[in-house]
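Prompt: Have a read of the protein record below and flag anything odd:
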Amino acid sequence: MTRHHRGSGEGWIRGSVVALECLLVTGQRMARVEVVGDDAVRVLREVFGFSSFRGAQAEIVERTIAGEDSVVLMPTGGGKSLCYQLPSLVRPGVGIVVSPLIALMHDQVEALRLLGVRASYWNSTSSDEEVYRTRQALRSGELDLLYVAPERLLTPSFLTTLDEVADSGGIALFAIDEAHCVSAWGHDFRPEYLRIAEITSRFPGVPRIALTATADAITRREIHQRLGLTEAREFVTSFDRPNIRYVVEEKNDVRAQLLRFLAQGDDGEGFRGQTGIVYCQSRKRTEEFAQLLRDNGYDAIAYHAGMHGDERSAAQQRFRREDGVVVCATIAFGMGIDKPDVRFVAHVDIPKSLEGYYQETGRAGRDGEPSVAWMAYGLADVVAQSQFISGGGASVEQQRVEQMKLDAMLGYAEAATCRRRVLLAYFGEESGDCGNCDTCLSPPELYDATVDTQKALSAVIRTGQRFGAGHIIDVLRGKKTAKIESWNHHDLPTFGVGVELSDQEWRSVIRQLVARGLLSPDPSRMGALTVTEKARPVLEGRETVMLRRMTATPARVKKARASSPGGAPADVTDDDRALFEVLRAERRALADAEGVPPYVVFPDRTLWELVAARPQTPEQLLAVNGIGPVKAEKYGARFLELLSGP
């Protein structure tokens, strides 16, 4: 099979391993590459600049090229996009990529165009003129890949255009990205996804590939069923991101805790000057935390839905194109932004599910370099999330599923064992202790808390199961507050039986009992604690309870960091660092001239490979991972000049 691949470029390196042909299309400078045969490895090298596939990529790509359907679960940064981008260049016709993420469309289209691929997007940001040009390019067979929002896919006018394309140049494939959005129980449900199957079924014989980084067993079944992929083969790669260190703290003074986390590190600088995201549950908190960080010397900005569209766009562009920016945002931020060098993701409030947490923390360390996912949470967070679930107008069944997801999130937060094991187990994957999370690095002390548990349960029962944690702790600690005296709770047998523990220690006990399911906060009654049936064996003395002992101060966990800036090799020299900075400055200048983020030109990893290899010829340049003919032609001469020295 012969496939014609066009893209923007300044020409091509002569004498490379591919046949190259330049032409002009519709008044724009375009290049045309004749890819000989349908060898996926050759396209991988000649277009994308990589020498080999990773993990299951090769099998997924070959299956899609052969016209078969697939469902792909691959962690963020694992290379999902290549699984549909490459087959779209090999199969005849245009690849249609359905995505709800505008930022992802922009990033990937920019990157593909720099590779010489004819790519475009069609979404709410497209002007009338851009829509017209895109439609004309589709009809005339001048696109290799089109990214489209699900809302656009469903419009009659777009379907008419697709029918015309199918009858002429053809449709190479349908890629349904963020496929977990099809699940009504999921953390990011989008009703438009429920109609995608009726669209793709109009084009029998066109392969479909559904992809996501976050899906539990329930969501996986829904992806197959609701997207009409009941016969599709499922590829599940490891969910593990070993370069991410997971750290959880019990919330006390969260502002001070965040600043302490950002300041830690054995280099004395912590995360100052590093790129990061701080997730908050409310718009107000994003503004407050951004100001807090600015007041303490960080380049921080806020991002939330209440901002004017231009302000949000400006914040997003700063994050994409500048180094060292920290964004304090609601959970919507970061979806689809493929920025590789995010060194930390912090949560100052507990997320509502492990799927959401995994997706959000997965925005750190996409370059494979050491990064940290830090979270602080308290019982009030859990109560607030439960109130949101019960008051959101969802069906009883949906509330039950969402509460189960929150319970799993709480179980992770209160885990006394390896956090990575807990996280991976949720997605059905077994692992050993990682040695790179807070509980592995600073194992918590467990103690027999059976008596403490019985005291807490008894206090809840004797006060009528109608009060929150604060009041129960006051009873246990023997505090004669006005509220306690008004209810005569100072006369209860449990009044003052827990004076040996501090308020904070009792809060830790109660959180752990909630995580174990022995206590349950009632969201309809302001988080009033109730005793569950699971507590009966403990109250009757038939079951022992081991809990984590609260330490006086949180264990100091050093920042996970590369041995040298930017993910450099361990044996990097001062001369190597100096050359890296020279290449980095040149990359910035080229990116600014192109109007794209620096990592779209070359990621840091490629710059370090250039430093290590010191290529002196175009042929040697093409041997560097991440540099194909298009980028070599566009940028090669300048980088070879810099690498040759003064």
Q: What stands out?
A: The CA atoms of residues 105 and 498 lie 57 Å apart.
